[in-house]
Amino acid sequence: MNLKNWKSWLMAGVLMSTVTACSTSGSGDNTGESNYPKKPITVVAPSGAGGGWDLTARSLTKVLGETKLVDQTMTVENKPGGGGAVYLAEYATQYKKDDYKLFISSPPILINNLKKEGNSPYGYKDTTPLAQLTKDFGAIVVKADSKYNSLKELMDAVKNDPKSVTAAGGSAPGSMDHLVAVLPAYKSGVDPKTVKYVSYDGGGEAIAALLGGNADYIATDASAVGEFLKAGKVKVLGVSSTERLKGDLADVPTFKEEGIDTDFTIWRGVFGPKEMSNNAKKYWSKKLENLNDSQEWKDELKRNGWEEEYKSADDFSSFLKEQEKQVEDLLKSLGMNK
């Protein structure tokens, strides 16, 4: 080989090494594959079929597929247990680098991690928050023939004699319905520990208890009471939103309108693993933003009676930090914090 040819081979070798180094550099700096995603994606609903997490996961995957925003196959997997805590422990330990496994969650990811009797040493900081997709709010509900006609009247009664008023909800003490039930009392100067709260197995049973005269009021999701309100079975005294809702609850005042300076959002969002690659995070940030902007997603929200509230990864993380403080404050007032 002459000198000219030898130099050509040497330059080709250097160029090939440079290309190879560039193509493999992602494996060491958590940037992930540049062609992500290259295999099917699983979205986990950490609950049984039919609940809010499950419906959100199925709506998400359906619309992403139908709009061709995501070309890869997307499947939903149900992993019930502990109000989401069982799967979160598995996710945080076994799948912390798996870019192909996402999951749906809501405020229990904060509550389970913060309460003393909670069943999770893990919380949202053991994940990568990707986007908030929807919002709902708490509602304080009484029977249609209840003597209470305003939230202020009800809270005055609780303040005067807490044990004479029974609150109920579809989740265990220290869980979301309980926190919503005591929130207006706490902000009205009542010691939350004195509020008489009875837990039922789900919102349906809580409403049945209310209608059966076994509770004076219940705390539940605002989206769950429209049909009962239209049927004339209940009165909704207040909602935990920052402004009045639309539709069936348009005439219901907010907590703040009733002189109770607080609000509480029941959100649902999408999470990735804690050590998610940069490429995967950027991919999902873009795709979820595009999803939120699509007419198909807006139609899906309307079909399910969900309120739209999109927050990007950074905004969602900031919001979670704020709500974590609110939840911790409430649990402390109940003596139920860790």
TrEMBL record:
* Pfam families tied to this protein: TctC
Bilayer-crossing residues are none
Gene3D superfamilies (UniProt xref) = Bordetella uptake gene, domain 1, Periplasmic binding protein-like II
**Superkingdom of the organism of origin:** Bacteria
Q: What is this protein called?
A: Tricarboxylic transport membrane protein
User: What UniProt keywords are attached to this protein's entry?
Assistant: Signal
Identify the species of origin.
Fictibacillus barbaricus
Q: Which InterPro entries match?
A: BUG, Bug_dom1
The positions making up the signal sequence are 1-23
> Which CDD domains does the annotation name?
PBP2_Bug_TTT (cd07012)
Q: Which family does it belong to?
A: Belongs to the UPF0065 (bug) family.
